[in-house]
Structures are given as C-alpha cells and as structure tokens.
Amino acid sequence: MGNTHGLRPWAAALVLGVGSVLTAVAAAPAPTAKATSPIPLQDFIRPANFSQVRISPDGKYLSAIVPNPQNPHENVLAILDGQTAKPLHVIPSGRNALLADYFWASDDRLIAAGAFRQNGLDTPRGTGELYGINADGKRQEQLFGYRAGSDTVGSHMRHATQRYASATVIGDALAVDNRILIATNAFTDDRNGSATNIETLNIMTGQTRTIGAAPARNADLIVDHAGQVRAAWTNDGFTEMRVWTRPSNDAPWTLRNDSATSGVTITPIGFNRDNSRLYVRVSQGDGPDAIELMNPADGSRTMVYQGKFADPMDLLPTADHLDYYAIITADGKPGLHYIDPGSQEAQLTQALDSNFPGQLAFFSSFTRDGQHAIVHVISDRSGSDYYLFDLATHQAKFLMSAQPWLDPKVTRPMEPIALTARDGLPLHGFLTLPAGKAPFPMVVVIHGGPHGVADQWGYDPEVQMLANHGYAVLQVNYRGSGGYGAKFIERGYRQWGLSMQDDVTDATLWAVKQGYADPKRLCLYGGSYGGYAALEGVVREPDLYECAIGYAGVYDLRVQLDASDTRQINAGVDYLHRALGTDRADLLRRSPLGGVARIKAHLMLAHGGEDKRVPFLNFREFTRALDAQRVPYESLVEPKEGHGFFLPEHRLEFYGKMLDFLDRNIGAQRQAVATP
C-alpha cells in the first residue's frame, strides 16, 4: 500500500474520475436507448467503478473500493467527504496486491484484508493478513501475517511481529481501546486443520494477546454486544456440524447441537439486543432453511422466518448495530421480511422500496449514532446504486453507480421461473429473454459448485451479454444446488450425470414447450461443474443440443477424485467421496470422457493451464479422446490462469470467441445460412 501523496498517474486520475463520475451521473440521466442497442463486449468485462461502499462511524467519511484500470492485480481505497462525496484521499493497495475486504475500526482508522498474486498465477489469493490504514493515508501498518516484520509489501508500510497464521475479524469491528477481536489459525500441513485461538489485536501497533480458544479446530466464532465470545461452530469432515455456546469468555464451552445425532444443522449468525438469544440458521427436513432465535443457555429455539421454498439470505442489522431489523428473502425475486415491522429501520426501508420498483433497496452501513446510512439498491438490469440517507430528515442523496455505463432500457429483466422435474421434484431458476419475439435461440447457463451453490436474481454480466446478443438465457437450480434447504443439496450427491443432469434437460424442454426457445437452436454453457454438465448434456442428449461450451470443466470424474486440490484436506476428501462416489468404473460412465463417441454437438472448450481445482489433465485427456474419435472442437488455453480466467484481456478473448461460436451454431450466422 502506498501513500496518498505523490500518486502514480493512474491513481491521480482516479481521484478526478470519482468526482467526474459522481457529477456526471447526478447531473444527467443516461440517454434513452433502443431495446436492441448493442452493448460493447468490454462493458460486460469491466469491473464495477465502486464496491463495498461504507460510511465511517462518525459520518465524516465515505469509503469504497475502486479498481485500477491499468492493473487488475491492484485497486485502491477511495476516501470521500461524508457530506459532499468529494474525493479526499486515494490509498493504493500496493504492487500486485488487492484490497479484498475492509471495515472501519474507528472514526479515522480502517482495517483491510489483502489478496495477492502468487507463484506467477494470474488470479490473486487471500493470505489471512490484516493491514491498518488511517483515512488520510497515513499510519499504514501490516498488523498481522506471515510478512509482518518484513519489507515485502509497500514502501511506506511498518510491520508488526511475523506470524505464520491467518486472522479473521470477529464481533463488532469497532475497536475498544484500539483493540479488536480476531480468530487466528496457524498455518499447518495437518489435513485436519489447526486450532482456532481467540486474540485481541491492537489496530495501531499489531500487538496481539491471546484470551482464549475455540472448542474445536477450524472454528467460526460469534461475539455478543458485550465483547464476549459466546458461540462457536465447526464442520466435522464435510457432513456434520457442531455448535457450542457459553455464557462468558471465562466459562467452559457446552455442546448445544451435533447434526450427526440430531439431524438438524444449526449455524449461528449473531446475538439479539439484550444478548439473551442467538439468531441461527436452521436446516432440517425437506423444507427451506429457517431463521430462528436460540436460547444459548439451553438450546431451545423459536421461529423467526421461513420462506415458501427458498432459503433466507442476509440479515440486516439495526442502526445501533445491536439487533437485526430485516431478512433478505429469496422466494423468486428477493424481498425483505421485517423482524420488527414497527421499527424505524423497517418503516423507512418500506418507504424507500416504493421508490425503486423491481429493485431491492436496503440500509447497508450506518454511522455510530444511527443518524446517517448508506442505501444500497440492487437491480438485475443495472447493477448497484448507492445513496446517502439522513434518518432524521428522511432525505436521500444519490452518491454513485457501480456500473454507470449500463442502461436499464437496453439490458433485460431476469424473471423467476418454476417447473417440475420428471420425478416430481419442484425446480426453480431464472429466464432472461432478449428483445424481440419468441421463440429465441437459447443458451442454458449451468452454474458451478455444484453443491450448495445457486443462481440468484441480480445483475449477471454473462447473462446480460448473451441476452444483448439475441439469446434467451435459462438458469435452473438443479438438485444439489444451494438455496432450497439441506435436503435439496443432498439429493444431488452421487447424481452427477444422472438426476442432476435430467433436471437441466427437463428445464430445457420446459422452455421449449413454453414457446421461449427454438428447439433447433439450443446450446449448453457452464464453468467448473457447469462445464461438466454442458458436455455431459450433449453426451446424454445427443439430438437435443446443437452445441456445448465447457469452461474449466470436469471431464473425467476420476481425475477430480485423484488430483483436485479439494483433496488437500480431509474434509475435501469427504466431500468428493460423498458428492461423486468412489466406484471408478461408475465415475468413468458418468464422465463426458466416457461418452465421447455419442457426441454430435459442436464443442468449444476453455481452460487455465494452472487450474488446481479442476486440473488441466481434464482438458488434456478429453481433447485427446475427442481427437481419437475425430470429434471436432474449438479450444482456448491460457497457460498461467487458474480456475477461471482472471485477467480482463483473457476474459475478453474468451467471450469474443464464445459469441462467435454461438453465432455460427445457433445465432445469426446459423440463421442466415439456413435461410434460402
């Protein structure tokens, strides 16, 4: 991290850029555009102008992460005036360093976590290090990490004691006597992880003090409003979760739930106003997760909220940070369930919501006195907007747009869908239609993960890119996806290439039957597991799809079982065994590699040469088999990329090739050739 003064040219330009963006957006709305206006491909690659927009505890400053347009491996922390939003300071992240996360620890002191480019790979990775920076760019210290005590990060950085460990901030981020609470885990080669210690960290000097320990390795911790670490939870292997509570830092831990014996999974979230109850997420039975209040003294629980079919998302804290006022819901488009509808926060949010139809608006950051807040507005068509809200006068002032180049008159709405799989299981997802008249050529975009991950409503640059080029985009949360309860996830175990794949097929046929999709112009696309499902789809349904695009895809389940970095810890091995199975002949039968001879579709494959999550051996073996069967394919390999492409130029090349591939196989060029 560098000093605000003597900025490099790009950083100085960013100071002006922030101001000009704010002025331009506030002064004049985007011009009206035709629904068919093409959006430059680069606009779907560009990072958001602003992210993690927050207000300081005293309201004097606003802050946000701003990208470095000249180097994707670096960004800056922009500090703005809390009333005028005028740029005050720009704090660069440092050479080959990204500010991954940050928070205000006092009125003028921030704590940041970094991600760094390592071993020549393009994608930065977090290291568990913590840094302290004053709002004016002064007093920059590396407070915690394995490079503390060295001179390897930034020429203006002072360093604390070197620790070969990672740190996570727990509890209220605001420091008391210049100290915050952290959970630390020593680096280890032990496949079961390391003990979790509870420490205090001085935000000025980096000095730490150990005040206790978690009841198990690799634990997450919850702190009450009195600064007492009173709840802990950890995964045992992959499948079981245990939860402990205690009345104070000096008391012993008591096991409150073990999912292996209770059949119920409980995840702590935070304490209520008087510290008597703990908000928890509860997974049990065949329904979606619920938010409940648990008595930490005896483990008893009462219901707060459960959706119709989808899990709840985040809980929104009250202005005084002592409770929660709402839960973001996900039954279709996101909404808000108000825990206390009579609270000031709930009433003001409801009033705000009426001004943003079809969007989600909520308070995301408050001052210490609760008088000012950041309003975050999320849209499926134009990304995020931010406003400064005065809770006393009820006045909102526009601050900034994360993606001001997006015109919601040109981008397309993402609509929730529901269908029933062939075995009667309800499925949910989203459909984004291009401008024009159906039926359209359609791309089925299959999310990765797969277990516990889900497509969600909101701005998705890939979806909007495809819709802008004339394609309907179907996203289905097949069994195994997250967001619909624990049982829905479990239904996907050992179903790769079986019922999980059937769900994708059933969703495709549903879109055709509804008249949205042209049955002769269908293509599958996905990354990671999505790449697997795209290729397995054209193996299992050789006459349904015209093409498939695999991006960092799994093509041999045996390779994934043997060589993925998921195997580096025992919990990862447990996951692979439960998700995939261990019968090697069966794994080959359920792999695209085992069905190459059945493929009729046109193929495009892209992979990073240094991918450790889905080893490059997947690509090499699969293309060798395609060559042996004389199955044509197009490919793109980036030797220094890992799991997915990070560098903008690599993503731009990939998406350019992808659009050309689609155009030739199901798009305008295909249609032109077919027309006499």
From TrEMBL:
Taxonomy, superkingdom: Bacteria
Alphabetized Gene3D superfamilies for the sequence: alpha/beta hydrolase
Record SUPFAM superfamilies: alpha/beta-Hydrolases, DPP6 N-terminal domain-like
Keyword Hydrolase attached: yes
GO terms for biological process, alphabetical: proteolysis
Residues annotated as domain Peptidase S9 prolyl oligopeptidase catalytic: 457-668
Keyword line: Hydrolase, Signal
Signal peptide: 1-26
MF terms (GO), sorted A to Z: serine-type endopeptidase activity
UniProt name for this protein: Peptidase S9 prolyl oligopeptidase catalytic domain-containing protein
Organism: Rhodanobacter lindaniclasticus
